[in-house]
Automatic annotation (TrEMBL):
<feature type="domain" description="3-hydroxyacyl-CoA dehydrogenase C-terminal">
    <location>
        <begin position="191"/>
        <end position="286"/>
    </location>
</feature>
<feature type="domain" description="3-hydroxyacyl-CoA dehydrogenase NAD binding">
    <location>
        <begin position="8"/>
        <end position="188"/>
    </location>
</feature>
<protein>
    <recommendedName>
        <fullName>enoyl-CoA hydratase</fullName>
    </recommendedName>
</protein>
<comment type="similarity">
    <text>Belongs to the enoyl-CoA hydratase/isomerase family.</text>
</comment>
<comment type="similarity">
    <text>In the central section; belongs to the 3-hydroxyacyl-CoA dehydrogenase family.</text>
</comment>
Amino acid sequence: MDFEDIDTIAVLGAGNMGHGITEVAALAGYEVRMRDIKDEFVQNGYDNIEWSLNKLAEKDQLSQEEADAALDRVTPLVDVQEAVGDADVVIEAVPEKMEIKKDVYTEVEEHAPDEAIFATNTSSLSITELSEVTERPEQFCGMHFFNPPVRMQLVEVITGAHTAEETLETVEALAEDFEKTPVRVRKDSPGFIVNRILVPLMNEAAWLVHDDVATIAEVDSTTKFDMGLPMGSFELSDQVGNDVGLHVLEYMHEVLGEAYEPCPLIEEKVENEELGKKTGQGFYDYENGGADIPA
Ligand code: 3HC
């Protein structure tokens, strides 16, 4: 598949990343089929896209006409065949579990055109292992966006063991057309580049609090105001989703070893369904003001 031939994109998953990627692709002028397994999930994703586009229009980052036209290019769907049947590229952003993703690819392989590229937004899982459940491993790569996709510039384009150079070049051209900056990851390795750095940062921050070395506010104040990152470490965990961060950590722990042992504080948050901004409660309470980090 050449980049010039792409006009229809299927995004699988309408959660935080799925709806954000859909929004980015629709803003770039593509017809996007956004699919999830339940009407309420798809509707929720669609409402989030509408909210975000209106917010960008309110802030004059695009006109209301552009916002409305982008929303018109989004088709929310539950039926997988309708979603991928005429797709040139399928971007998958379903939950970060190997078995769920493999099941999705097995189903999608049946319905997607033979020439379509499959790109996974996995945060850490093996691109090679996922590609091997399809009949097109050379047309399979990672396309990893960051949260929130509409605001974050970077996209990692990850090489699986079977990925063809042509696939990487097409996906890099697509990322550029989305007005993003693609960075090629040469080898399939847990967490790729960014999460290999960022997820241990969030985990170490949690261990500091767990071990009574500092409070959440002290750690976040240091990360944000002294180290100069755009968010505190705990604020970032809440932005990413504590469940997503934990999945990445568990996989890095399994493959890379002890240094990546997840902190129990993060596990507790996930057990209590305090997943961060998306549930209104995480390390901070987003129903009552969110992160208030002392400068
Ligand atoms: N669409 C539209 N508007 C949005 C939005 C979205 N998706 N998300 C937030 N906003 C709005 C907010 O509602 C707020 O609006 P308000 O001013 O009316 O209250 C406004 O944007 C805040 O924007 P600002 O530019 O004023 O705020 P910042 O300068 O702090 O920028 C940020 C926000 C871009 C999110 C910045 O804080 C940032 O870069 N944070 C770091 C995020 C990051 O590192 N993400 C990557 C995490 S790793 C990952 O995702 C990988 C995964 O695999 C785990």
